[in-house]
Amino acid sequence: MSIEARDFEIFSGTGGVGKTTLATSRAIQIAQSGKRVLLITIDPAKRLRELLNLELDMAGEVITVEDPFNTGEKIPLDVELMNPTSTFERIVKKSDCEEVLTNRILKILTKPHGGLNEILAIVELNIQFKSGKYDVIVLDTPPGSHFLDFLESVDRIKLFFDQSFIDIFNFLGKKVEKKSFSFGKKMVNIVVSTGVKKLLGYLNKVTGDKFVDDFIDAIIAIYKTKKTFLDALKLQDTLKHSDHSAWYLVTSVEQNKLREALDLKAHARGLITKQSSIILNKCIEENLAEWNPETDSKNFLLKESLLNREKKLKSDLKNHFERILEFPEIFNISPLKHVESLTQSWKQL
What we know:
Layout: E1 8-13, H1 19-32, E2 37-41, H2 46-52, E3 62-64, E4 77-81, H3 84-95, H4 104-109, H5 117-130, E5 136-140, H6 145-160, H7 163-171, H8 190-207, H9 209-224, H10 226-233, H11 235-240, E6 245-252, H12 255-266, E7 277-283, H13 285-288, H14 298-317, E8 323-328, H15 335-348
Parallel strand pairs: 1-5, 1-6, 2-4, 2-5, 6-7, 7-8
Antiparallel strand pairs: 3-4
């Protein structure tokens, strides 16, 4: 019997451990059970495009993949390669503020790797969740330290919409619809005001008036769309709740990958806990069971060494996680065969 799916299934881990392949296989396995599934990858890496035969120019679109294994079996699976620009366009339409799309600063910031990728990922996740189209959303997070940026994006949204920012732009004399803000302080602290004056004076000399105006307009434009951003903050509680979200930390039998995975857990701020699942990928114990080299031969010593290393890793993991999910190494050059094999492994858990 397979593991029961939650509203959100989040996969994290360092590069090269098979995170994207496992996330894809999980999404397909859940869709095969009849649930409506959306698979989102925040970092549109080459791997997912290879697995599902997608093109890079599809990024930002929700693509229906009805028959991933070409077997004639249609399943309710959608896939989205996260694209910051497309997400921002959706935000703008919801806020009826389409004129901000022409701001050149925002055009730069909302490009992939432009600086808003992780923040907009939280917003995109919330938009798709609120759409009511899906029973389950499977999320493939960025690898390694970029995953921490994803986790910290909620705090960045809070910081950006802090009252002091409102006061600064109020001080600058920019006219913004009053209904967009709830003003608390009436006057900017003289130190902050002086600092802003110096900053703008410097920017004006280096870049000219046009850049400064574009910069201020970009910030105000984001404020005009703040309802969608602030609504995404509420998603954090859902992601923390074990009844609604399942977090999978992916590692492999390589020892250095285990250390990196535990470092991610330590920085995950309560989202990845001892109750979360650790996935040990590329296990070879099952494969080695049928290999019977002569006792005391080099091959025998090699087999014993590999088995002992894997057993030690599993023992070490028990000190950090209550549930260890083991997935075998797949010896096949076809990426799709990897997904197909892992999909079956999910069903057997």
